[in-house]
Design goal:
The protein has 163 residues and is mainly alpha-helical. It has two domains: 90 residues, no CATH class; 48 residues.
Amino acid sequence: MMTYFYGWSLNSEASLYEKLREDLKTAMKKKEDGVRDTIRMVMSEFPKLTVPITLDSGKKSVRCKKEDEITNEDIMSIIRSLIKSEKILLEAKKETSSLFLEVLQEYIPKPANEEEIRKWIRENMDLSAIKNPMNAMGPVMKHFGQRADGALVKKVLQETLSP
């Protein structure tokens, strides 16, 4: 189906914004309507990205972010919210996946799995000094950021620290 590589990774040289624009052009040329529509949906959310400003009158307001102000994290946040919405919709329809969901997932870093979290904890934390698993949540979540599910990290820490 898709021969061109759609998606983005943290190692990419291009920003996520640039990659989305490039992929949109490619999808249009290849007449891949599902991919084109998904990317357009993501880009249609960009006006929601705003910057607070103070007007000459002193009144506080906001303006849309300019193209060069939109960060990868901004876009990933939009994509994550679209993924969450799509999963809720699919659950209601008793379906497991859709082209929309699959395309969206190509533009965010893969979630950290249980083994990856367990390995990082073993290599980077002094477990003997930690009595309560919740005290270790902070450093783990800081390292993995949005890639880690808090519930999974909690479960791994409780298993790792239980006698």
